[in-house]
Amino acid sequence: MGWIVRLFVLMQLVHVVFCWGKHGHYAVCKIAEGYLTKDAMATVKELLPDYANGELASVCSWPDDIKWYYRWYWTSPLHYVDTPSFKCNYKYGRDCYDSAGRRNNCVTGAIFNYTKQLFSAYQGYNPNLKYNLTEALIFLAHYMADVHQPLHVGFTGDLGGTILKVRWYRKKTNLHHVWDTLIIDTAVKTFYGSDLSTMVRAIQRNITDAWSSDIASWKSCRHHDRVCPNLYAAESVRLACNFAYKNATPGSILEDDYFLSRLPVVEKRLAQGGIRLAAVLNQLLNFEVKIGQSL
Ligand SMILES: *[C@@H]1O[C@H](CO)[C@@H](O)[C@H](O)[C@H]1NC(C)=O
Ligand SMILES: *[C@@H]1O[C@H](CO)[C@@H](O)[C@H](O)[C@H]1NC(C)=O
Ligand SMILES: *[C@@H]1O[C@H](CO)[C@@H](O)[C@H](O)[C@H]1NC(C)=O
Ligand SMILES: [Zn+2]
């Protein structure tokens, strides 16, 4: 019996052991905080649990901490979406389902889901109060970051790189973990004086400087959609093919060449995740719009 339970737990978790590490989630939410409007920030603070002390970034890893618990197992497939191996493209209808075949149970489906919940609560025409909006906010913030991690939209065959064994310098690991955690941690140590905030500030400087003319295009979706996770996922799988999987096959030793050429990709994804999260929250939690509609 104990053995069967353990096997069950293993099967549930084998795919979700890794996720943009704590640093990645912190960075995305920290960047987003800097671009929230006053109204959106006020609503975020209202929704956050007390222990967050008004800081969204402090709770953005929460969905990774809880997915181990039985009560939250159902959230595990919501952190990623797998695509057919070597195709390098993504299609919602083809790819967004979990291992039991339930449709919409994937990271892009979850982003649509939680956007809808916040929208119906705050933009008013169909207030749906059965949802816990604190959870909706935190899940949305978390999954917006995950969908920007290229290997969260990786191949089915290697479970998004989680079973693709490589070495990171001398350390044995898997490719997924390299992208969730090791590139960021190595950069923080090597270039940012072991201080994550210094890395976040460097990315913020690029947002106002080198990338400033790209920001509008990062934020915009087709057809005036509020959020476009399908676009973010399509970008991710392309980056997975062109950067993550490239020159990383089972047994590869990834060192300076790989690290230095992939770090800019990671930093830009953190920036895009943050900017886009702020953009969607600004639309959803804009108090003025709510007043306007209720008049
Ligand atoms: C949508 O959110 C509800 C409430 O948290 C949850 O029960 C449901 O499983 C979610 N579905 C997806 C695809 O995120
Ligand atoms: C909403 O969810 C949070 C996190 O799971 C929980 O702490 C809180 O009690 C919930 N609020 C309500 C009203 O159920
Ligand atoms: C800033 O942008 C430049 C040009 O795109 C890029 O080479 C550099 O890696 C970026 N730095 C950070 C911290 O994002
Ligand atoms: Zn995650």
Automatic annotation (TrEMBL):
The species is Gossypium darwinii (Darwin's cotton)
Give the molecular function GO annotations: metal ion binding; nucleic acid binding; RNA endonuclease activity; single-stranded DNA endodeoxyribonuclease activity
Q: What are the protein's UniProt keywords?
A: Disulfide bond, Endonuclease, Glycoprotein, Hydrolase, Metal-binding, Nuclease, Signal
Q: What is its EC number?
A: 3.1.30.1
The entry's protein name is Aspergillus nuclease S1
Under InterPro entries, the record lists: PLipase_C/P1_nuclease_dom_sf (IPR008947), S1/P1nuclease (IPR003154)
Does DNA damage show up as a keyword for this record? Answer: no
Reactions catalysed, semicolon-separated, are:
Endonucleolytic cleavage to 5'-phosphomononucleotide and 5'-phosphooligonucleotide end-products
- Asked whether the UniProt record includes tRNA processing among its keywords, one would answer no
PANTHER family assigned to the protein according to its UniProt record, in alphabetical order: ENDONUCLEASE 4
Q: Give the Gene3D superfamilies listed for this entry.
A: P1 Nuclease
Any one Gene Ontology biological process term? Answer: DNA catabolic process
Q: Which SUPFAM superfamilies match?
A: Phospholipase C/P1 nuclease (SSF48537)
Complexes and interactors: Monomer.
Q: Which family does it belong to?
A: Belongs to the nuclease type I family.
Pfam families (alphabetical): S1-P1_nuclease
Q: Which domain of life is it from?
A: Eukaryota
Q: Which region is the signal sequence? A: 1-19
